[in-house]
Design goal:
binds pyridoxal-5'-phosphate; Aspartate Aminotransferase, domain 1; globular; Aspartate Aminotransferase, domain 2; alpha/beta; about 35% helix
């Protein structure tokens, strides 16, 4: 018997080929059959500076020979301390407490538990979490509960907890979102504990973009009504939207912020949930029952922290922001070019992310167009993974002009072929 690998978000019954990657550098993935594939989705939105960045590789090598892993409950180490210090140069001043975990989903779970613990430890019964329609926050039970319901989680529906949903702020209908938020926030019978949002752009929900003004307004409403504001920057963080964190564009400082993916440059798993002093203080006590009851075995793994420290150095020493701005400019030009195409709609851009829809009758995630497009792109050595009929580009910042032009050309070919 051979043990078989069960891949994520993969229907093995369709028998689609699963290419094997043997090596990667920059924006290129090299396969065992000798192809060089342009990674135009940053390997599931994680890679920021490109694959195998020498500084991150060196940091991992050095740290793994020194201290590989240590329990973090009651113990500490230098890479974690250095990271805490380094993050203070990137985070708003008030987000001055960080809690480590190891994925975006766990960062979100931690945020929810922090918010509920905050109210619980003050003797207040606040359990309701407010969410935005079409959101995605991960695949653990808690993270699924606060995400969009549908085919992804139908089987688990009985386990998912109830939330209060506000509509996505569609252009021209933003007031409905704000009104719904106010209605939940003023519900005396069930006052919310927190609102969690993906700031500026909803990723897995279809790269849906909304304005910094609405983000700021939602934050203001939460502040006014004493509802905690959680920003899930797992996808948006580390430059994707044009600024290091999306919240910056709205001048918003959340009470709790989740980050993962690009925290280590996307090389090795690590997540951080950052919180303000009042959240921490609500758990600070001589009473052990009030401690924050959360951990995972690899919390603050030293090798992962060393990779994150190298990421911060790259942000400090290399022209990362210029690379981001350049991609944003190129996307803008391409978006104008796309505008002339028939059967293309909803062209939208948020920093380094460009998305549009190919008109399709089913128009949802399960659209057969998705896998067909995926295969079309793969045949042309480009890794793009449309969300149903929504095509998006989210490249690593090191992508060259030539590689980006190839991605654009292949997308135009796909439009001519499918639209
Ligand atoms: N939150 C957001 C906004 C995400 O986009 C994702 C993953 O794509 C997650 C949370 C979950 O992160 P992970 O896959 O690392 O658990």
């Amino acid at each position: 018997m051979t043990t078989k690998i069960w891949h994520p978000f993969t229907q093995h019954g369709l028998g689609q080929p699963i290419p094997e990657v043997v090596r990667a550098e920059g924006a290129l993935l090299h396969t065992e059959d000798g192809r060089a594939i342009i990674d135009a989705i940053s390997s599931w939105w994680v890679q920021t500076h490109g694959h195998c960045h020498p500084k991150i590789v060196a940091a991992i090598q050095e740290q793994s020979a020194k201290l590989d892993q240590i329990i973090f409950a009651g113990w500490t180490h230098e890479p974690a301390q250095q990271l805490a210090k380094g993050l203070s140069n990137f985070l708003p001043e008030t987000l001055d407490h960080i809690f480590f975990s190891d994925s975006g989903s766990t960062a979100v779970e931690v945020a929810l538990k922090m918010a509920l613990g905050f109210w619980h430890n003050q003797g207040q019964q606040r359990h309701r979490i407010l969410v935005m329609d079409h959101s995605y926050h991960g695949d653990t039970i808690g993270a699924m509960s606060i995400g969009a319901r549908g085919v992804f989680n139908d089987a688990y529906a009985p386990l998912l907890f109830d939330v209060g949903s506000i509509p996505f702020p569609e252009s021209g209908a933003e007031q409905a979102t704000l009104d719904a938020l106010v209605a939940f926030c003023t519900d005396q019978d069930n006052p919310p504990a927190a609102l969690i949002v993906e700031p500026l752009i909803l990723g897995a929900g279809g790269m849906k973009v909304y304005s910094p003004k609405i983000l700021a307004e939602m934050h203001r409403i939460c502040q006014q009504h004493d509802v905690l504001f959680i920003a899930d920057e797992v996808m948006t963080g580390w430059g994707r939207t044009g600024t290091v964190f999306a919240c910056e564009q709205a001048g918003v400082t959340p009470d709790i912020m989740c980050m993962a993916k690009g925290l280590t440059g996307g090389v090795i798993p690590l997540a951080v949930t950052a919180a303000t002093a009042p959240i921490y203080d609500a758990h600070f006590s001589e009473d052990r029952a009030k401690m924050f009851f959360h951990s995972s075995s690899f919390t603050a793994n030293p090798i992962a922290c060393a990779a994150a420290n190298a990421n911060l150095e790259i942000w400090r020493d290399e022209p990362v922001q210029q690379q981001i701005d350049h991609i944003a400019e190129r996307h803008l030009e391409f978006a104008q070019q796309l505008d002339g195409h028939q059967n293309i709609s909803a062209i939208r851009q948020c920093g380094t992310i460009l998305a549009f829809e190919i008109d399709d009758a089913s128009g949802n995630y399960m659209s057969a167009l998705g896998p067909a497009l995926l295969g079309f792109f793969a045949d042309r050595n480009v890794l793009l993974r449309p969300l149903g009929n929504s095509v998006y580009i989210m490249p690593p910042y090191c992508i060259t002009d030539e590689q980006l032009s190839t991605v654009y050309r292949v997308i135009e070919e796909a439009i001519d072929h499918f639209a």
